[in-house]
Amino acid sequence: MTYAFGDNPLCLKRARKITPILLQRAEEVYSSSPQVLLEDQDVAHQLLGWWRFANRTADLLTQAYDAGFNVEAAGLMRNLIEHAHFMDWLAEHQTAGLRAMEEAEWTRRKKMINNFKEIDWPIPAGIEVGEKPTFDFADEAEQAAHSTLVGQASTVANLVAARGIRNLYPVYRYLSSYAHASTQSAEPFVERGPGKAPALHLAGTVAVTESRVWIPVCLYLAGSTVSQFLQGNPMRATLEKAAWDLGFGEIVAERIRLESGNRQPGSSS
Q1: What angle separates helix 209-227 from helix 9-31, to the nearest 10 degrees?
Q2: What is the distance between the alpha carbons of residues 141 and 99, in angstroms, rounded to a whole number?
Q3: What is the pLDDT of the chain when averaged over all its residues?
Q4: Would 2 be classed as within a structural domain?
Q5: Domain membership of residue 89 as a residue range
Q6: What is the pLDDT of residue 202?
Q7: In DSSP terms, which residues pair with 196 in a beta bridge?
Q8: Is the pTM for the entire model greater than 0.85?
Q9: How far apart (Å, rounded) are the C-alpha atoms in residues 107 and 228?
Protein backbone atom coordinates (compact mmCIF):
# COMPACT_ATOMS: atom_id res chain seq x y z
CA MET A 1 0.00 0.00 0.00
CA THR A 2 1.28 3.47 -0.91
CA TYR A 3 0.68 6.16 1.69
CA ALA A 4 0.22 9.85 0.96
CA PHE A 5 2.21 12.24 3.11
CA GLY A 6 0.47 15.46 4.03
CA ASP A 7 -1.81 17.40 6.36
CA ASN A 8 -4.49 14.72 6.62
CA PRO A 9 -5.93 12.51 9.39
CA LEU A 10 -4.41 9.26 8.10
CA CYS A 11 -0.90 10.73 7.94
CA LEU A 12 -1.38 12.25 11.39
CA LYS A 13 -2.34 8.83 12.76
CA ARG A 14 0.79 7.26 11.29
CA ALA A 15 2.97 10.14 12.51
CA ARG A 16 1.71 9.73 16.07
CA LYS A 17 2.62 6.04 15.91
CA ILE A 18 5.99 6.44 14.21
CA THR A 19 7.39 9.32 16.29
CA PRO A 20 7.82 7.29 19.52
CA ILE A 21 9.37 4.44 17.52
CA LEU A 22 12.03 6.78 16.13
CA LEU A 23 12.65 8.32 19.54
CA GLN A 24 13.00 4.91 21.19
CA ARG A 25 15.44 3.64 18.57
CA ALA A 26 17.46 6.86 18.84
CA GLU A 27 17.60 6.44 22.61
CA GLU A 28 18.92 2.89 22.20
CA VAL A 29 21.62 3.98 19.77
CA TYR A 30 22.69 7.04 21.76
CA SER A 31 22.83 5.08 25.03
CA SER A 32 25.00 2.38 23.45
CA SER A 33 27.97 4.79 23.06
CA PRO A 34 28.06 4.40 19.26
CA GLN A 35 31.43 4.06 17.58
CA VAL A 36 32.69 6.74 15.19
CA LEU A 37 35.59 6.46 12.75
CA LEU A 38 38.63 8.40 13.93
CA GLU A 39 38.63 10.78 10.94
CA ASP A 40 35.00 11.69 11.59
CA GLN A 41 35.26 12.34 15.34
CA ASP A 42 34.83 16.12 15.37
CA VAL A 43 31.95 16.23 12.89
CA ALA A 44 30.19 13.20 14.39
CA HIS A 45 30.41 14.51 17.95
CA GLN A 46 28.82 17.82 16.92
CA LEU A 47 26.10 15.89 15.10
CA LEU A 48 25.54 13.61 18.09
CA GLY A 49 25.06 16.61 20.37
CA TRP A 50 22.58 18.19 17.97
CA TRP A 51 20.85 14.84 17.49
CA ARG A 52 20.33 14.47 21.22
CA PHE A 53 18.92 18.00 21.37
CA ALA A 54 16.62 17.31 18.41
CA ASN A 55 15.31 14.05 19.88
CA ARG A 56 14.64 15.58 23.27
CA THR A 57 12.95 18.56 21.61
CA ALA A 58 10.72 16.21 19.60
CA ASP A 59 9.87 14.30 22.77
CA LEU A 60 8.97 17.50 24.62
CA LEU A 61 7.06 18.77 21.60
CA THR A 62 4.96 15.61 21.46
CA GLN A 63 4.22 15.83 25.17
CA ALA A 64 3.21 19.48 24.75
CA TYR A 65 0.80 18.66 21.92
CA ASP A 66 -0.66 15.76 23.88
CA ALA A 67 -1.24 18.09 26.84
CA GLY A 68 -2.95 20.73 24.68
CA PHE A 69 -0.10 23.28 24.58
CA ASN A 70 -0.47 23.74 20.83
CA VAL A 71 0.44 27.42 20.63
CA GLU A 72 3.27 27.28 23.12
CA ALA A 73 4.85 24.35 21.27
CA ALA A 74 5.35 26.34 18.06
CA GLY A 75 8.73 27.61 19.22
CA LEU A 76 9.86 24.04 19.87
CA MET A 77 8.80 23.05 16.36
CA ARG A 78 10.92 25.89 15.00
CA ASN A 79 13.93 24.62 16.98
CA LEU A 80 13.44 21.08 15.71
CA ILE A 81 13.29 22.18 12.07
CA GLU A 82 16.38 24.36 12.46
CA HIS A 83 18.49 21.65 14.08
CA ALA A 84 17.52 18.97 11.56
CA HIS A 85 18.53 21.15 8.61
CA PHE A 86 21.74 22.39 10.23
CA MET A 87 22.69 18.75 10.85
CA ASP A 88 22.17 17.95 7.18
CA TRP A 89 24.22 21.01 6.22
CA LEU A 90 27.11 20.01 8.48
CA ALA A 91 27.09 16.43 7.17
CA GLU A 92 27.55 17.84 3.69
CA HIS A 93 30.35 20.30 4.46
CA GLN A 94 31.98 18.43 7.36
CA THR A 95 35.40 19.90 8.32
CA ALA A 96 34.83 23.06 6.29
CA GLY A 97 31.43 23.39 7.94
CA LEU A 98 32.93 23.01 11.40
CA ARG A 99 35.44 25.79 10.68
CA ALA A 100 32.63 28.04 9.49
CA MET A 101 30.56 27.25 12.57
CA GLU A 102 33.52 28.01 14.83
CA GLU A 103 33.95 31.48 13.34
CA ALA A 104 30.21 32.21 13.28
CA GLU A 105 29.89 31.07 16.90
CA TRP A 106 32.88 33.16 17.98
CA THR A 107 31.26 36.25 16.44
CA ARG A 108 27.93 35.52 18.10
CA ARG A 109 29.45 34.96 21.53
CA LYS A 110 31.75 37.96 21.25
CA LYS A 111 28.76 40.21 20.60
CA MET A 112 26.90 38.64 23.51
CA ILE A 113 29.85 39.14 25.87
CA ASN A 114 30.16 42.76 24.79
CA ASN A 115 26.44 43.25 25.48
CA PHE A 116 26.88 41.88 29.00
CA LYS A 117 29.87 44.13 29.59
CA GLU A 118 27.90 47.19 28.45
CA ILE A 119 25.35 46.64 31.21
CA ASP A 120 27.98 45.53 33.76
CA TRP A 121 26.40 42.09 34.05
CA PRO A 122 28.41 38.98 35.07
CA ILE A 123 29.46 36.94 32.06
CA PRO A 124 27.62 33.58 32.17
CA ALA A 125 29.88 30.57 32.52
CA GLY A 126 30.65 28.65 29.36
CA ILE A 127 30.42 31.43 26.78
CA GLU A 128 33.91 32.88 27.14
CA VAL A 129 35.93 33.23 23.94
CA GLY A 130 39.58 33.82 23.23
CA GLU A 131 41.09 35.26 20.11
CA LYS A 132 39.17 35.07 16.86
CA PRO A 133 39.84 31.69 15.20
CA THR A 134 42.19 31.73 12.22
CA PHE A 135 42.63 29.09 9.54
CA ASP A 136 45.22 28.27 6.92
CA PHE A 137 43.64 28.26 3.48
CA ALA A 138 45.23 26.73 0.42
CA ASP A 139 44.25 29.65 -1.80
CA GLU A 140 41.84 32.55 -2.18
CA ALA A 141 39.14 30.27 -3.55
CA GLU A 142 39.15 28.18 -0.37
CA GLN A 143 39.04 31.32 1.76
CA ALA A 144 36.09 32.65 -0.27
CA ALA A 145 34.30 29.32 0.14
CA HIS A 146 34.89 29.56 3.90
CA SER A 147 33.36 33.04 4.03
CA THR A 148 30.32 31.74 2.17
CA LEU A 149 29.87 28.91 4.67
CA VAL A 150 30.27 31.34 7.60
CA GLY A 151 27.37 33.31 6.18
CA GLN A 152 25.28 30.18 5.84
CA ALA A 153 26.08 29.09 9.41
CA SER A 154 25.16 32.52 10.77
CA THR A 155 21.42 32.60 10.00
CA VAL A 156 18.62 30.19 9.15
CA ALA A 157 17.60 32.38 6.21
CA ASN A 158 21.06 32.08 4.65
CA LEU A 159 21.25 28.35 5.27
CA VAL A 160 17.90 27.40 3.72
CA ALA A 161 18.51 29.70 0.75
CA ALA A 162 21.88 28.07 0.10
CA ARG A 163 20.30 24.61 0.26
CA GLY A 164 17.60 25.45 -2.26
CA ILE A 165 14.78 25.32 0.27
CA ARG A 166 14.12 29.04 0.56
CA ASN A 167 10.38 28.35 0.89
CA LEU A 168 11.06 26.86 4.34
CA TYR A 169 12.01 30.23 5.81
CA PRO A 170 8.48 31.74 5.85
CA VAL A 171 7.35 28.65 7.79
CA TYR A 172 10.22 29.17 10.22
CA ARG A 173 9.27 32.83 10.69
CA TYR A 174 5.61 31.89 11.18
CA LEU A 175 6.56 29.52 13.98
CA SER A 176 8.92 32.13 15.42
CA SER A 177 6.05 34.60 15.73
CA TYR A 178 4.54 32.32 18.39
CA ALA A 179 7.84 32.33 20.30
CA HIS A 180 7.87 36.13 20.62
CA ALA A 181 5.48 38.65 22.15
CA SER A 182 3.36 39.30 19.07
CA THR A 183 -0.32 39.75 18.33
CA GLN A 184 -0.17 36.31 16.79
CA SER A 185 0.74 34.69 20.11
CA ALA A 186 -2.39 36.24 21.71
CA GLU A 187 -4.91 35.69 18.92
CA PRO A 188 -5.44 31.94 19.56
CA PHE A 189 -6.65 32.74 23.07
CA VAL A 190 -8.84 35.78 22.35
CA GLU A 191 -11.53 35.88 19.69
CA ARG A 192 -12.50 39.46 18.96
CA GLY A 193 -15.58 40.59 17.14
CA PRO A 194 -17.02 44.03 16.24
CA GLY A 195 -19.42 45.35 18.82
CA LYS A 196 -19.10 42.46 21.24
CA ALA A 197 -16.92 41.34 24.10
CA PRO A 198 -14.00 39.12 23.12
CA ALA A 199 -14.39 35.38 23.64
CA LEU A 200 -11.60 33.86 25.69
CA HIS A 201 -10.20 30.39 25.08
CA LEU A 202 -8.42 28.41 27.78
CA ALA A 203 -6.39 26.54 25.15
CA GLY A 204 -5.14 28.02 21.91
CA THR A 205 -7.34 27.49 18.86
CA VAL A 206 -4.54 26.45 16.51
CA ALA A 207 -4.57 23.35 14.32
CA VAL A 208 -1.50 21.17 14.87
CA THR A 209 -2.01 18.34 12.39
CA GLU A 210 0.55 19.72 9.97
CA SER A 211 3.14 20.33 12.69
CA ARG A 212 2.69 16.85 14.16
CA VAL A 213 3.22 15.10 10.84
CA TRP A 214 6.46 17.01 10.36
CA ILE A 215 7.94 15.87 13.68
CA PRO A 216 8.94 12.41 12.37
CA VAL A 217 10.17 14.01 9.12
CA CYS A 218 12.61 16.13 11.13
CA LEU A 219 13.58 13.07 13.14
CA TYR A 220 14.19 11.20 9.90
CA LEU A 221 16.46 13.96 8.57
CA ALA A 222 18.39 14.28 11.82
CA GLY A 223 18.68 10.54 12.37
CA SER A 224 19.77 9.67 8.83
CA THR A 225 22.33 12.47 8.93
CA VAL A 226 24.09 11.28 12.06
CA SER A 227 23.65 7.54 11.48
CA GLN A 228 25.89 7.56 8.39
CA PHE A 229 28.80 8.59 10.64
CA LEU A 230 28.20 5.77 13.13
CA GLN A 231 29.58 2.29 12.77
CA GLY A 232 27.00 0.03 11.13
CA ASN A 233 24.60 2.90 10.29
CA PRO A 234 22.37 1.77 13.20
CA MET A 235 19.35 3.98 12.43
CA ARG A 236 19.06 3.09 8.75
CA ALA A 237 16.52 0.24 8.85
CA THR A 238 14.20 2.02 11.28
CA LEU A 239 14.37 5.28 9.34
CA GLU A 240 13.79 3.70 5.93
CA LYS A 241 10.68 1.91 7.19
CA ALA A 242 9.44 5.15 8.77
CA ALA A 243 9.90 7.03 5.48
CA TRP A 244 7.82 4.52 3.53
CA ASP A 245 5.18 4.33 6.26
CA LEU A 246 4.86 8.12 6.28
CA GLY A 247 4.57 8.32 2.50
CA PHE A 248 7.86 9.88 1.40
CA GLY A 249 9.94 6.73 0.87
CA GLU A 250 10.22 7.30 -2.89
CA ILE A 251 11.61 10.80 -2.32
CA VAL A 252 14.21 9.42 0.08
CA ALA A 253 15.17 6.63 -2.30
CA GLU A 254 15.69 9.14 -5.11
CA ARG A 255 17.80 11.40 -2.88
CA ILE A 256 19.97 8.47 -1.84
CA ARG A 257 20.44 7.51 -5.48
CA LEU A 258 21.46 11.03 -6.48
CA GLU A 259 23.81 11.53 -3.53
CA SER A 260 25.42 8.10 -3.67
CA GLY A 261 29.15 8.60 -3.78
CA ASN A 262 28.89 12.39 -3.58
CA ARG A 263 28.90 12.76 0.20
CA GLN A 264 30.81 10.27 2.29
CA PRO A 265 31.92 10.45 5.93
CA GLY A 266 35.60 11.27 6.18
CA SER A 267 35.53 13.86 3.40
CA SER A 268 34.90 17.60 3.45
CA SER A 269 33.82 20.19 0.96
Answers
A1: 30
A2: 15
A3: 88
A4: no
A5: 9-258
A6: 77
A7: 193
A8: yes
A9: 30
